[in-house]
Write a structure and sequence with these properties.
Distance between the termini: 23 Å
Structural class: alpha+beta
Bound molecules: adenosine-5'-diphosphate
Order of helices and strands: HEEHEHEHHEHEEEEEEEHEEHHE
Mean pLDDT: 96
Amino acid sequence: MLGAGQLGRMLQQEASTLGIELYFLDKSKDFPAGQISKNIIVGDFKNYDDVIAFGQDLDLITIEIENVNTDALLYLEKKGKIIYPQPEVVALIKAKGLQKQFYKDKKIPTSEFNLYDDAQDIKLAIKTQKLNYPFVQKSRLAGYDGKGVAVIRSEHDVEKLMSVPSVIEDLVNIDKELAIIIAKNKNGETKQFPLTEMVFNESGNLLDHLICPSTVSDEVLNKCQSIATQIISELDMIGILAIEFFLDKTGKVLVNEVAPRTHNSGHHTIDANINSQFNLHLRSILNLSLGNTDSIKPSVMLNLL
Ligand code: ADP
């Protein structure tokens, strides 16, 4: 497992019940997974040599964060290691520009976008009226919990621009934010959890709480479910995939982004579903039958930082 954060810790708890031994690569034995596992190898999952040294004696390599050294994973894959999700998929998803282009190429609905090199490039586009307010800037490199996102509503927000390679997207008039977690195993079996509704904290651009099941219409539910199935099959990926959607005020469903790992839109599944997202992730990468993802009861999850 590349990463020993809170997702790694929750995966370790599930792995213990399945009798699977996990090893983690991360910067400190004190990280969350280290509090319940002795198998923390100290190193940096962004560093090529550390990832190769870590992976060479393991049977199967997976991730709890997408911001890992995918060149090292590609090398290990060439040497015959089993890596799920596949490194090419992780590389595509972690580059937000490539991810958006993928949706466009596959005709998957998403907000309109353009790519820019830095803040100066963006300011020039504003000046020459190639770009109009309002818009959303997203760093094309590592973003997490809203940290690589700036909402620019007017000239007063221009100082918020980050000087990084960016995707600039239309600001969606959001009615609700929704998410589905889906997984596929090597046999081609797929399973998804019920649709969740995420309520965001506007100032931090991060999740405040979520509600499951969502109260949207069957039409919106069916649309989200079929887009989720389409994305995992177009990516041809094995493992778990979280898909975040916007439902806009006209009733249109747009894909915001995906994450090829367990996700904070699925933590309620630990208590509220027959099997959790952590169980589903481990089952999918081990090519086990994917089990039952049904809810036992409605639930709400609060995000405490
Ligand atoms: P992160 O990867 O950091 O979670 P997201 O792309 O999910 O970043 O953006 C964080 C939040 O910012 C979204 O959940 C949403 O509330 C808001 N946001 C992002 N993109 C847009 C957009 N195009 N229009 C309106 N709001 C957006």
